[in-house]
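Notes taken during the Thursday session

The instructor put the following on the board and asked us to keep it in front of us for the whole hour. The protein is Glutathione hydrolase proenzyme. We were told not to look anything up and to reason only from what is written here. First, the residues (610 in total):
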Amino acid sequence: MFSTLPLRRYRLPALLLLTSALNLAACNNAKVPTLPLAPESASGFRTDLKTQHAEKYMAAAANPLAAEAGREMLRRGGSAIDAAIAMQAVLTLVEPQSSGIGGGALIVLWDGKAVRTYDGRETAPAGATEKLFLQANGQPMGFNQAQIGGRSVGTPGVLRALELAHQKHGRLPWAQLFEPAIQLAEQGFAISPRLHQLIAADSSMPRSAEMMAYFRNADGSPKAVGTNLKNPPLAAVFKRIAREGADALYKGPIAEEIAARVQGHANPGSLSVSDLAHYQAKERAPLCTDYKRWQVCGMPPPSSGGIAVAQILGTLQALEARDKRLALAPLKPVKTTAPAGIEPDPLAVHLISEAERLAYADRAQYLADADFVPVPVKGLVDPAYLASRAALIGERSMGTAKPGIPPGIQVAYAPDRSPLRISTSQVVAVDDAGGAVSMTTTIESAFGSHIMVQGFMLNNEMTDFSFIPEENGQKVANRVEPGKRPRSSMAPTLIFDRQSGEFLATVGSPGGSQIIEYVAKSAIGLLDWNLDAQAAINLPNFGSRNGPTELERGQFSPMLIQALKDKGHSVSEIDMTSGTQAIVRVKDAQGKASLAGGADPRREGQALGD
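Then, after some discussion, the predicted structure tokens were revealed:
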């Protein structure tokens, strides 16, 4: 079924090999692939990034080593999904805190003819109950108590989803796609500034002997930036997956160890070998909606991201249709020391934030796994419904929005008041045939459940369910149920020209529940404000999750902040660590098409192409 050709040696480009001058006698003085010592997401904003241009293909990921693996597959004639698989394998190694084969992913794919989506979201084990996160007194657990250990581990789905997509859209043999990750795991890679910072900040790491041995020194201190980190167990896992396909993870000794570690933890879960063996990735119909001159396609439930982004854009379109004075004002230069150097008009920030309040209110009320609860998908994105929601937006902030009553409601549910968290990673790719992928991938919180099995981290996705199964006698739609997929905020997105049907852009971001804000901002930057890929990503983050109006710390002028307060906004300046990747199809004056890509300066990503 899968190629078992010998693994060819993967050659990393000189650019990446020369970013560090580490001398490693143990590796015959071979230079170790490293990252530029750029500021990490929470401590800086890279100002050296420019839009990358390519004639044939391009890949972008949250780590340059992953982006290079994606480009290498495209150079070999691979498809966009081939590139995504190679990038995910490398991210499992070099960005273990964010994603990996122990987690899940949502994929939106354009094959040149149709948009397809693949759901690799984790599922609740068969033994899980809706009281999973309730204490003996009936109160919900604290998040850390729920996260660390086997209780939070859902059945991983990313590898099954990638296998399914590869069977339908892959060009290269499956085994080739793991070559970069295998070589990096065996040869080692240099710990990046961001990974080092997250290792140092993780107060729960001492509870895992495997993590301490791998990520920290004998005295408990975090391994330094630039330390050569090898992962032979993960290399062996990837070799098995390359030979046997996804079954290597879901059946046999690896599956048995996963189940044993989850069930045997001091905070045990119920994930079993049967749960792993019976996991199925699903192809779902894409959620495509019109926005002005464009069509925007994303994931349906269990993702809330696709619906929320569509609602935000649809609400803004309805506002403009109602009153041309409410069209999104253009960006204007401001005198600011903020790295981006530009910011939206205060009215635009007001309107977008209010549209987001409405979308997040509906998200909390209605969004969950549609295989288990009736989600009124069509009603939530119905233009007439969104026009009625837009009518609620006035000159002053509404504060906290209430959910609407969209067409098609079948059951009344209580709102989900679960805490909002930040996590995840993002890859995008466009191949030489014009195929495109946006994949958002996650193990949920940083380092997931903190259970490390054969070199990779297991997810804590069960904490994406509501901790409280009901409120005031009404069930919460996103409550725990066996086999159910937890609601996700992931919003992998593809954009097309409505008139010609031509592919325009692939975009997505990590960031937990803030993903919706980040993707909406980037889409508006590309479409309404005519920014290039890098500028749209660089644009300061802002929005509202139906609470305070959040502004990226240090990125907005005092004038804009005061203007929002004058409109009744409760403003909160916070770190908003997006990790957006985008690739846009552009045309020159002669109509010749090429690709332009960007990566988020708040993390360590890179876009690469030829």
